[in-house]
Amino acid sequence: MGLVVGEVLEGKVTGITGFGAFVSLPEGKSGMVHISEVANSFVSDIKEFLKEGDSVRVKVINIDDAGRINLSIKRAQETAPREAAAPRSGSFERRAPRPRPSQFSGGRAQQSKQPRDPATLSFEDKLKLFMADSESRMADIRHNTDRKSGSRRRK
Length: 155
Hints:
Elements: E1 8-16, E2 20-24, E3 30-34, E4 55-63, E5 69-72, H1 123-149
Parallel strand pairs: 3-5
Antiparallel strand pairs: 1-2, 1-4, 2-3, 4-5
């Protein structure tokens, strides 16, 4: 029986890095909990929350084509649904960025294998997509700026 996305399991922390923790799972498999998936609050040092040998409850959030298993501790915790808080006076409501038209993508094909429906993506997934797109656009801008300014080596 294989692992299924959405399944909640018990595992044991086998290693800790600066970006996450490795967890051994049943059936001899292992997965990784990214530092952003450890707690509902900001985690600057994962060692404040976990140590090697800890038994943790994790939820399988993704299994990629290479067989890597992405896990989440915070999504495995059974929490009550958050109540909508009344906006504070003087505060602005944050909205998700609107998707850009495809003509601004520089002709690049979308290579993401995640669903693009914003209603089904978590905040972390939206942030990952935004950061990847932003990095790609900045690289294109730097490339074009360097080419126009003549900073390339001339023969």
